[in-house]
Specification:
By secondary structure, this protein is an all-alpha fold. 76% of the residues lie in helices and 0% in strands. The chain is flat, with a radius of gyration of 18 Å. The chain starts with a helix and ends with a helix.
Amino acid sequence: MKELQYLFVYIWIAIPSTIQIGVNILYGMGYHYSIPSTLELILRACVPISIVIPWLARTFLLLLIVIISLYRIFVFIKTIRKSLPQEYFGVACIFSKIGFYSFLTFLFLLIATILLTSSGGSSGVPAALSLIPAIICTPISFFIIEFKTFKKAWKMKNIKS
């Protein structure tokens, strides 16, 4: 189950980031509309001042995130789930579990909402509200894993030199 949660983190990040790259390219071509990306939401949450990032820089940051995510998914599939990286365990694992189970709850509530709506039932608000922990915790897990990975690589580089 931890393997599925690990894979979920990168799929959850890669898909919206890829869509946002397309939106940024359209923005650069003159179509001025925007969908807030995960990166922008995290930046707005971390930095209280509204930062204006040029669309080209934003596109390259998102491209970097997509490349990292696709690389992790490729390595995960290539190793046939033999082991998870050490960077995943700890706080990142807890955040990914919260996000993963929140997403499963969303799917369950969405199916229940669809069934109830066909018989005159409820709206989709409870299902959408159950996604809030996934929206918050999954990107945090992604950034914790990547920070630990780069920190480990930096230490290895300094040890060798």
